[in-house]
Amino acid sequence: MAQEIDPVLLALVISGLALLLFFLYVSSIEKVFERIGFSRQEATSILTVTLLLGWISIPIFPYNGWWVGISIGGGIVPLIVCYALLRSKRVHMAEASIGIVIVAVVTYFITRAEEGVGIVADLPFAFAPALAGGLYALSTFWLDIRKAAPLAYFSGVVGTLIGADVFHMTEILSFKAPAEGFTMLSIGGANIFDMVYLSGIVAVGVDIVVFWILQQEKKRGFGRVLTEWERGAEGLPYARDLQAEPTLRPGKKGRIQ
Q1: How many Cβ atoms from other residues are within 10 Å of residue 212's Cβ?
Q2: Residue 242: what pLDDT?
Q3: Which residues pair with 66 in a beta bridge?
């Protein structure tokens, strides 16, 4: 007979797993900021400000009963980071413009405006903007993650912001605002779980994973095995039977010996 699970114990286990996953996610965000060129102290400061002020939205302008605003954590902080990348020349606008267009187009077609909800995207396609930004950065700087990672972040954040919030803004504002209360349409309102924020983080994550795979391939790939085999490494078939090719060198009278 199966033993019943204590509901309190089950709740504690689920809560512990949720906290662990949240901690791992937050730690990965800090690593991403370090990858795009910030120091550990700067990355910690960015993350701290995001978590403390992330759920506060600043009103920008009213329209037809709505207030359009922007979240500090999900909107302003990522844009400040992008500005810092431009100012420090870790990202150049020439490459970034193409990435922004690509990500914005992808984002626009996988998102939609829903009344009473906001801008939404179905889960299988929600990470498409981040993948687009990451793959574009890889295609531009295939061998240098120091350049690819900042470009991936910049393209993912700005492209998603334009494709989702700017391009769908007229649709959202066309919905009827509630008759009572203060209703705000907040850009990046979901903070570190908002698509704008996530696109930059995941885009860099894609590049990190690909570069890690490339490094492992260089260390343990077919090229290394073939080189060891040619040099006669022990345990490899026929290695002892291999002989070095004779070296051709010119003689005293210019003849090849």
Answers
A1: 11
A2: 46
A3: 63
> Residue 151's CB: how many other CB atoms inside 10 A?
28
**Owner of token pair 């910690």:** 44
Distance separating alpha carbons of residues 206 and 106, to the nearest angstrom? 17
> Out of 25-29, 117-121, 181-185, 220-224, which region has the weakest mean confidence (pLDDT)?
220-224
